[in-house]
Each structure stands twice: as C-alpha cells, then as structure tokens.
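TL;DR need structure tokens for one chain.
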Amino acid sequence: MTKFQFGLITTRKIGNAVVRNRTRRRLREVIREQQSLIIGGCYIVTIARWRAPEATLEQLRRDWHGAAKRAGILDKISGNQPQLPAL
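>> reply
TL;DR here they are.
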C-alpha cells in the first residue's frame, strides 16, 4: 500500500506567521496520530479556517476525523474510531 500525501493551507486571515505556524504544527500532529487510519494513495489538502487557532487540540482532532470520515479517506479495516492518546 502506498502512503498518502497531505498539504496544509493556512492563510493570513488566520493570523500572523507565529499563529499560522502553530496551527500547522497542531494539524500535522492530528494527521500524524491518525495516519494508520488513512487509506494509502490519496492526496489530502486541509484548509485551516479562521477558528482553528483558538480551537483545542481535541476539537481539531474531532473536526479533522469527522471531515476525513465524510470524505471517505479512512480505512474501513482499521475501524472508524481514531486511536487517540490519553491526555
């Protein structure tokens, strides 16, 4: 199975460079945590919306997982529930 590829888009509407980079790091972490659930060979583009910088990491996880589920990019064999680490 080939790996997936992803891109993150954070526009200046979100905030200054510090805020955009922090948001990108958090979204990368969310995707990294759920990479075992994502089917191989797909290309994913995640666009951070204006509320992303204020969202908690748990809210970003839930939102990203829900969007991935709706998009049909989650592997059915691995299950539909994300394997999230305990906080």
